[in-house]
Amino acid sequence: MKTAVDKQVHYQKPKKKLRLSRILLHFALIVGSLVMAGPFIWMGLSSLKSFEQMFAIPPEFIPSPVMWSNFTDSLQAMPFGRAYWNSFYISTIVVVSQVVTCSMAAYAFAKLKFPGSKVLFIAFLATMMVPMQVTLIPLYLIMDGLGWVNTHLSIIVPNALFNAFGVFLLRQFMLGIPKEMEEAAVIDGANPAFIYLRIMVPLIKPALAAFGIFSFIGIWNNFIQPLTFLSDTDLFTVPLMLAMFKGLYVTQWPLLMAGATISVVPVLIVYFFAQRQIIEGIALTGVKG
């Protein structure tokens, strides 16, 4: 017969194993975080170095002296204020438009039954497998025919009206909402528009927030479309303005790193304050009845 001491020892062994596994898990997560944050740390440190320090052998990780003037020189060398405004208002318009259009399309695919809905949804998702570079030239010809080349409309309108990933994400979230809620609203005389605005939209707020953040980051970092459609410096966005630091023979790497550090600040702020919504929007599959 086991004594109380033997039982205590017996129950302590799993706890020790559990603690060891947690320590190993946290160690792996810390190492992975450092690996992922390594390029950002290097970018931030390089933005405070001189040109000679960046290419010193052996490498100098800590800048000495600290070149705070790189940030002011970077802002003065290029019209970054205008580029920031262009990226901000373009991203805002596109995000708001995508949230509206994608949520409406997701509601139609998830809750409204119409002929060919499944085939149309599969064809819609198939567009995600087509690289953007394939459609860039046809899109340029369309924008040129509309007279939108070298205007922000060539970046805003195509992105605002179509996002297959957003439709897929929101549709999967809506499929998890119980049908009973929709049926109860129909019995009370609600139409599809009322159900979408008053029932679906409030219930999918985590998914909308997550999608809006992903959309903002994608549009803010968009480079190839502004490079293709824009030619006037006053219309440049932040990623395109950063590319101006790269010259044919000489690249001002300290100024480029300083400008890149400034450009990621809005993205980091958005992610820092909305990381909970990102996790909820991706992890949750809907409302359980």
How do you describe this structure in short?
It is found in: Cell membrane. The protein has 289 residues and is mostly helical. Helix content is 74%, strand content 0%.
Protein topology:
Blueprint: H1 4-46, H2 51-54, H3 69-77, H4 80-111, H5 117-126, H6 132-146, H7 153-161, H8 164-175, H9 179-187, H10 192-203, H11 205-220, H12 224-229, H13 238-243, H14 253-263, H15 265-283
Helix pairs in contact: 1-14, 3-14, 4-7, 4-8, 4-11, 8-11, 11-15
Characterise this structure.
The structure is a single chain. With 289 residues, the chain is mainly α. It has two domains: 4-46; 78-283, Orthogonal Bundle (MetI-like fold). 74% of the residues lie in helices and 0% in strands. It contains 15 helices and no strands. It has helices at residues 4-46, 51-54, 69-77, 80-111, 117-126, 132-146, 153-161, 164-175, 179-187, 192-203, 205-220, 224-229, 238-243, 253-263, 265-283. Helix 11 runs antiparallel to helix 15. The longest helix has 43 residues, at 4-46. The radius of gyration is 26 Å and the shape is globular. Residues 285-289 have low confidence and may be disordered.
